[in-house]
């Protein structure tokens, strides 16, 4: 009986140790909208979804692409108004972007409404 108890205890300790050793998985999300503002110095990007704005901090090794072309954070200032897709994770309350995909062309301007 004592052997069974010792084996069970060691098994539980091994299981507990592996659960603490495994890093917590961070859940990634995607957001899309129009590129509203870029601050390359602060590594911040604002994406507009209708009337709602989302602010992202760029990860130091973020992948910024437009088609097959790789961009730098400073290049994004030329793409204001373009549609973008942003992959990000949450770090506390901060959205940290590790990938931004920029549409090749800006969306066409809406015609003025008649009224």
> For the residues shown, what is the average pLDDT?
84
Percentage beta strand: over 45%
Distance between the termini: 88 Å
Regions with little confidence, pLDDT below 50 for 5+ residues: none
**What is the assigned CATH homologous superfamily of the domain at 29-102?**
Copper binding periplasmic protein CusF
Helix and strand string, N-terminal first?
Answer: HEEEEEE
**Major sheet details:** 5 strands, mixed, barrel
**Share of residues in helices:** 10-25%
CATH class of the domain at 29-102: Mainly Beta
Overall form = globular
Topology-level CATH name of the domain at 29-102: OB fold (Dihydrolipoamide Acetyltransferase, E2P)
Could you tell me the radius of gyration in angstroms?
23 Å
- What is the correct CATH architecture of the domain at 29-102? Beta Barrel
Q: Strands across the major sheet, in which order?
A: 1-2-3-6-5
Number of helices in the DSSP assignment: 1
Count every beta strand, where a strand is a DSSP E run of 2 or more residues.
6
Give an overview of the whole structure:
With 115 residues, the chain is α+β, with helices and mostly antiparallel strands. The protein has a domain at 29-102: Copper binding periplasmic protein CusF (OB fold (Dihydrolipoamide Acetyltransferase, E2P), Beta Barrel), CATH 2.40.50. It is 17% helix and 46% strand. The chain has one helix at 2-21, and strands spanning 29-39, 44-49, 52-66, 69-71, 83-91, 94-102. The protein has a five-stranded mixed β-barrel with strand order 1-2-3-6-5. A hairpin with a 2-residue loop joins β5 (83-91) and β6 (94-102). It is globular.
